[in-house]
Amino acid sequence: HDLTAKHDEL
Amino acid sequence: MNLFRLAGDVSHLLAIIILLLKIWRTRSCAGISGKSQILFALVFTTRYLDLLTTFISFYNTTMKVIYIGCSYATVWMIYAKFKATYDSNHDTFRMEFLVIPIAALSLLVNHDFAPLEILWTFSIYLESVAILPQLFMVSKTGEAETITSHYLFALGLYRALYLMNWIWRFFAEGFFDLIAIVAGLVQTILYCDFFYLYITKVLKGKKLSLPA
Questions:
Q1: ipTM of the complex
Q2: Residue of B119, B123, B161, B177 for testing the chain A interface, max A β-carbons within 10 Å
Q3: CA distance B111 to chain A (A)
Q4: DSSP letters along B132-174, please?
Q5: What is the pLDDT of residues B109-168, one digit of tens each?
Q6: Cβ-Cβ contacts under 8 Å, B15 against chain A
Q7: Which of A4, A8, A10 sits opposite B111 (nearest CB)?
């Protein structure tokens, strides 16, 4: 999984 | 979204609101480390730049705007509005000893050497130690107002709940972000002795005082 795609946590 | 993360966000929001109201209502920032609040404002600024680039959800955007707004309002109250009540003699932690090494670390250990990703990594590392000036100030003054200890408890609890969120996401989604997890562990561990004092003293109605 591409971690940097989007950091969906605050 | 899972219950642990939602509870963590609520606890974080509660901490930020408690501090904002404490300073606004008492018109005093006695016992509050302005340096920690500057570091938190820096944490939110560097982490939430993606407000300008990616839309994740209404909740995500709203919370980021609230966090950034409240943190700058808190810094403004400490250093401008209620400056006379700011206890700079006890707020002496050297912020540069945190910011510079962490800036270097975020350039060395990150998921992707891209500007926004480096800033996100810097923000994650910085958040794990941003409370140190505040804990240092409490240890120097030897005590903290009860409302300040509630603020610290809620703030410490938020990342502990995030740790549970990451355990849940690992098993439920196979998702894990080692940078966030390690920094979150460090951050929560820094609160351990405070948690002990809070549970053994404050919850029994006593004032939070550190053994001199």
A1: 0.89
A2: B177
A3: 7
A4: HHHHHHHHHHSEE-HHHHHHHHHHHHHHHHHHHHHHHHHHHH-
A5: 999 999 999 999 999 999 999 999 999 999 999 999 999 999 999 999 999 999 999 999
A6: none
A7: A4
